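Late entry, evening session. Most of the bench is empty. Finally got around to the prediction I had been postponing all week. Sequence below, unchanged from the version circulated by S.P.
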Amino acid sequence: MRAKDSATRRAGARVTCAALLCLASLALSGCRRHDFPTYPAKYREYVYVANAGSGTVSALDVVNLRLDREIAVAADPFAVLAAKTRNEVYVLSSGSPASGATENGLAGAGNRAGTLTVVNAETQRVAATLPAGRGPRGFALDPEDRFAYVAASAGISSATPSLVVLDLVHRRLAAEVPLRAVPDRVTVAPDGRSVMVASVAGNELTILNADPVGGRWAVRAQVGGCAGADAMAVLPDSSKVFVACSRGHQVMAVELAWRADARLGRSYARADALEAMLDVGQLPGYLALKPDGGELFVSNTGSNSISEVVTSSDDVGGTYLIGSMPEFGLVSEDNSLLYESSLQSQQIAVYGIDDGRRLGSIHVGDGPDRMTFSARGNLLFAIDRRSGDVAAVRTDTRSLFTLLPVGRDPVAIADKYFTIP
């Protein structure tokens, strides 16, 4: 009982601190709760936070700005995504003991059996749990939320590095595609036709054809030469993918294959091809793409900077100091601001894209990492890895509004909104 009481006291202390901080923020900035959007009675919105250290997902109520509940999932959850077409949220867990969570949250090392947990966002209950291969390292959803693609160190039925394809509609395994190297990241083109898998150890990008109707997924191209191929970003028109070469100082640009619909009377085609290797800062990590796809911002962890890439011409427009070891970038919906977090600080830097300069910083909790916007863009939510909470930042004033307590070692975040019947 003492351990439980101690945990309760810690949670209560965090809530009290958050409340005091919110009151201080109100006094200093003059903000009021009525400055926020008004919501219809049946509107719901939650921010889901995967807590690697406690085997839970925290559901934060965005409308009322409070912790709604903790949802128990499989051990060591490290990635979370929200469906666009259904009121569901998907949580990927590595299956390793909660006490063994890794520093960077990618706890897919080894060959422990991973799981994908389906959470019903309307009831906030677990709807299903699916096997996701051994040593899962990342996942993505197709544009229609029919399939989840899991990059796994080994498949469900084999010891081969695999892309595990899960049918989310029928809650079953759809396919296992063997890969040459252990995959780390996976992303899907907006048109749903191409699935890209990056391998840090293999220094390569693997591109697969996606044929969900026919139930076929096959490797169609492999592009090497990217040292530590890791984070990816795909243009909105599905014409190009950018890959961060995380063990060097480059970003790889790859033109994606395209074939016109035969009904349009066109017969020309384009094959996947390496387009350029772009020199950026040292140890490039996350790639933040503007919503309009015109520019890409590279978080250069090793040189405390960001690089700005013009996506149409593959030109590096410039590299700018942004703060100590930038971790994650997020561009506002109006394409005007880049928010850049740094795990080694208590700050989120704000970069003006039109101005081409750093505009200032926002003091949040300790160790800001992954971020997401609320549906209406009035709030930015940032995980504070070291202090174990989530900062809610007002985007109109670019100031901290409050802190919300979550579980141990929060590592991933996603926003989900919907209207109940």
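Two things to note before I forget:
Confidence is low (pLDDT under 50) at residues 1-32, 97-109, 264-268.
The chain has one helix and 33 strands.
Will write this up properly tomorrow.
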